[in-house]
Amino acid sequence: MLNIAIVDDEQVLRDILVRYIEEWKERERCEAEAETFASGEAFYFAWCGQQRYDVLFLDIMMGGRHQPCEAAQGAGKGFDYHIHHRNRRLHAGGL
Questions:
Q1: Which residues lie below 8 Å from residue 65, measured CB to CB, with a gap of 6+?
Q2: What's the 3-state SS for 32-68?
Q3: Is the dihedral of CA 4, 12, 93, 45 positive or negative?
Q4: Does the pLDDT value for residue 90 go beyond 50?
Q5: Helix or strand or coil: residue 85?
Q6: How many CB atoms within 10 Å of residue 78?
Q7: How far is CA 2 from the centre of its chain?
Q8: Does the predicted model carry a pTM greater than 0.70?
Q9: CA distance 82 to 86
Q10: DSSP code for 31
Q11: What dotted CATH number matches 2-94?
């Protein structure tokens, strides 16, 4: 099972991404579960408790104590990441 975290402060965007993931699961016959978070803090606390996410979708323009990228960095090493903006790949690396 693929565990997916979606971190975005806008409910509409979280809902759209969940819908895309549900459509992908059906099309690819893949087992996956998406969990949404409205803040970097909420994601960070969930990560500290479970550390179970394989894929992270992060809104890179959020405020708060733990911005999503900082929360992902605090979640630990071992993630490869790709930053996309409107279908353009901007950056890739590892945490």
A1: 40, 41
A2: EEEEEECCHHHHHHHHHHHCCCCEEEECCCCCCCCCH
A3: negative
A4: no
A5: strand
A6: 7
A7: 12
A8: yes
A9: 13
A10: -
A11: 3.40.50.2300
Measured CA to CA, the distance from residue 33 to residue 41 in angstroms comes to 20
Residue in the block written with tokens 């179970």: 52
Q: Show me where the domains of the chain are located.
A: 2-94
Please name the residues in contact with 32: beta carbons below 8 A apart, sequence gap of 6 or more: 1, 2, 3, 4, 21, 24, 25
**Burial label, 5 (beta-carbon count in 10 A; 0-12, 13-18, 19+):** buried
Which band of pLDDT confidence, cut at 50, 70 and 90, is reported for residue 21? very high
Q: How confident is the model at residue 16 (pLDDT cuts 50, 70, 90)?
A: very high
Query: Can you tell me the distance from the alpha carbon of 68 to that of 63, in angstroms, rounded to the nearest whole number?
Result: 9
CB 40 within 8 A of CB 65: yes
